[in-house]
Amino acid sequence: MSKIYAVANQKGGVGKTTTAVNLAASLGYFEEKVLLIDFDPQGNATTGSGIDKQEVEWSGVDVLLGDVSLVEAIQEMDGSGYDLLAANGDLTAAEVELFNVEDRLHRLTSILETADKKYSYILIDCPPTLNILTLNAFVAADGVIVPLQCEYYALEGLTSLMDTMDRVRETQNPALQLQGIVRTMYDSRNNLAVEVSEQLLSHFGERVYETVVPRNVKLAEAPSYGRPIIYYAPSSRGAYAYVDLAAEILERAEKEKRDEGNAL
Ligand SMILES: Nc1ncnc2c1ncn2[C@@H]1O[C@H](COP(=O)(O)OP(=O)(O)O)[C@@H](O)[C@H]1O
Ligand SMILES: [Mg+2]
Predict the structure, then answer these.
(1) Sheet containing 83-85: which strands, arranged edge to edge?
(2) Which of 18, 26, 216 to mutate to test the pocket of ligand 1 (most atoms within 8 A of CB)?
(3) Counting ligands in written order, which one lies closest to the CA of residue 40?
């Protein structure tokens, strides 16, 4: 069974796309079969994967509407370590297009069941809004990975994200978990960042990944070359961080599997 993780935070510019792309590539590096879904109309995960979004014929919204099968819409990418369901501007219309579709919050859940055997991990790069696409992702997901920049209002935003997850858990997907929170663009010389990080650890404990992603210029450069960091700058601090994060997530998933086994 594939593990499905939504990469989400309703704040923009916190490192969602950077995390989704580089985690997908790093899980691929560990020989997992990975699908990355770009659910943000801005299509940054698509561009960052080296695909021109002007040339994307089928996006997630076409798949959700049933106009094309998931298999047909997916782009297999050599040498990136993952396959991609790319985005284009059509995703902007998702809200309107899906308005009259029956069971519209569960479209992605049923579609991903068709890919269950092919992929061990499915990552969904969510937009910075709580729209129909984000909700489809939360309803389909086993867990949410939250990239967080340790700055002043970060924790406040997190509370409302947790409320949304609670609501989805109560009404649509009881299995939804907070997979983990990853500190991004971290600068340990910044006192505020250190303080927010400490508060985060005291609130969320081991739900905060041990791996910290530092601010690293190579991570910011890689998307313009359309390459994940492990291929663009394999010996950069950014590359090491995302490989470590992938290892930590794999470990966590293994532990969950063992715990489930013990509970049976
Ligand atoms: N660890 C990092 N170090 C340096 N720049 C980063 C890092 N993470 C993200 N960035 C840059 O910050 C900007 C916002 O990141 P992005 O992943 O696109 O955020 P989001 O998807 O949450 O909007 C991008 O220009 C990205 O290249
Ligand atoms: Mg993004």
Answers:
(1) 83-85, 34-38, 121-125, 3-7, 143-149, 177-186, 208-214
(2) 18
(3) 2
